[in-house]
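Section 5.1 Outputs to date
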Amino acid sequence: NEIIRLVEEYGVYPQFARRIPMNSDTLVIARRTGGLAARPVGENAEVLTSDVTFDNVELNAKIWGVANRTPNSLLEDSVIDLADLMAVEIAQAFAEAVDNAGFVGDGTSAYHGVEGITKKIVKAAHSASVVTTTNGTEDTYGELTMKNFTDMVAKLPTYARRSARFFISPAGWGSAMLRLAMLPGGASGPGGNSSSDVAAGFGERFLGYPVTLVSSMHSSLDDSSGEVACLFGDLSQAAVYGERRAIQIRTSADRWMEYDQTLTFASTRNAIVVSDVGSTTKAGPVVALKFG
């Protein structure tokens, strides 16, 4: 009555993006684009006016679905609780789909039209939010240096630092961050870790900030030119996750009756929008490290 499940963990995007309940299929959020200006004023001189300006971020709830056909004989004879298993698998499928769309979606129908943050942030319009490594010498995780990551921290605006964290794949964490953090000390590496420190290891933190592993992000340890290696910042200020309807699960023994099968169908409605990733002159609340 036991089952072995060896699966990756997902659900990062809904956890760290700004979560907003949606009362209809569309929600418009006002976004500040400019503020008031304080100016020096001379005696009996007119004060020039200034305005707080806004634009809009629009959320459109879209349907995601999971369908499964199960032989009734399997339901009758299975030694495990298939209903519980299906619920877990459905939650896993939705979490994976949302992370894939939110982080690496390319705007095509495969991602329900969602452009993920690693695809959007590297566009020319957001160049101030990108740190690019040296082409040819820093194009794999194993070649990244401490300076690559400290440059990310240096670029992040102050307003995004309080809740900032790194987002990186498990492969990137091990090959880049853990490697750099565990460099031994001694004559060949002054200021590094002692042997006992290296043996003990440490939690998932880097440069004083928490690290969140994202299975959807780039994971290759080979030449990765052009790919986003890592993100750093406050995702809740850069991306939105609108919730229109939670997961609903329904079953039907009639849909595939002639095959003696039961249909399990699950659906959810949500909106995934990467809204703020900076401009050509100002870094946004999340910055990216891109392989050169």
